[in-house]
Amino acid sequence: MAILIAEQDACASAEAAAALQRAGYVTLEVGTGTEALELARGRELDLLLLEVTLPDMTGYEVCRTLRGEGDEVPIFFLSGTHTDSIDRIAGLLFGADDYLAKPVDPQELVARVRRHVGRRRAPVPARVAAAAPSLTRRENEILGHLAAGSTQKAVALELSISAKTVGTHIQNLLGKLDVHSRAELVAQAYLLGLVQPGAGRRRTEAAFTTLPS
Q1: Residues 95 and 65 in one domain
Q2: Domain span at residue 188?
Q3: Tens digit of pLDDT for each residue in 149-173?
Q4: What does the mean pLDDT of the chain come to?
């Protein structure tokens, strides 16, 4: 059993590995999502430290693939750039056990790892693996703008429609994806493959607030 570190930054990977080795853990280090999947499938792991941004695929894709195959290894996402609320929410909804912003204090990393090593996750909720709902062309457009971080008013201006109309479409999207906030809406859209993680997204908290009832 070992802790697998999937990190494209060799210095950050070595730093995390050194901290974990000092705490008595065996570590394995890879730099791509493909290598992470191969090792995770080929041996039992205590835990997977997974950078969100990898050269060949996102950490979200790695996590979704493993969870889809029934792998219950504890997964921690690491990122120095994807650190907003929507990123953390998306990571947890993908099936991760924790989400750490870099740089991570070595002692905190070890403490969090110790808390999870040996745990086995409960099965991923069925709705995460559900088929994507059918969306209209306008709903797809609005969902794409929300995933890019646009506010309701900005979406209305971009699409030359009223903010009230945008709000109606958003309410329809919430119902179709069975969620209750814009953050959950975008995260669930990532899970169902309706939008791609991080594609052209502006970093603004305005798009992540809970909608009024």
Answers
A1: yes
A2: 137-208
A3: 888 999 999 899 998 999 999 999 9
A4: 82
- 95 and 43 within one domain: yes
pTM recorded for the entire structure? 0.58
Can you tell me the distance from the alpha carbon of 83 to that of 96, in angstroms, rounded to the nearest whole number? 15
